[in-house]
Amino acid sequence: MYYSTKIQIQIVCIPKYNELLNMLKERYAKGDIAADDYRERSMILEDEYYQDDYWLYAENAEMIQFKEKYVKGEIDSQEYIEKRTAIKKLHNTSPLNILKERFDNGEISATEYKKIRNE
Q1: Which whole number is the average pLDDT over 91-97?
Q2: What is the DSSP string of 29-71?
Q3: Is 67 exposed, middle or buried (0-12, 13-18, 19+ CB in 10 A)?
Q4: Predicted model pTM
């Protein structure tokens, strides 16, 4: 049976996502974290879940350990987001993504972007 890549990735990764949220809920229920911290961390994880490229990194052992540290409170949200962004950039180096980034940064014009993209 054929599934799109995104659906296949989600089927594999939903249990890990749920496990992370459950760990966070347990910490909140025990009183280890305040309500604001719980909401912030769960919203960040939830936002990632709905990003198209997020789950591409979910099976990576380093990324899983990183997320677990975040859920356990070993790193704060700012550090988590900064490191996640850096990891994402490392994995997001296809020629088209590099072209998009150059366009977003103003390094090339819209005309140049379209020309290069269509080549």
Answers
A1: 72
A2: HHTSS-HHHHHHHHHHHHHHHTSTTGGGGTT-HHHHHHHHHHH
A3: buried
A4: 0.63
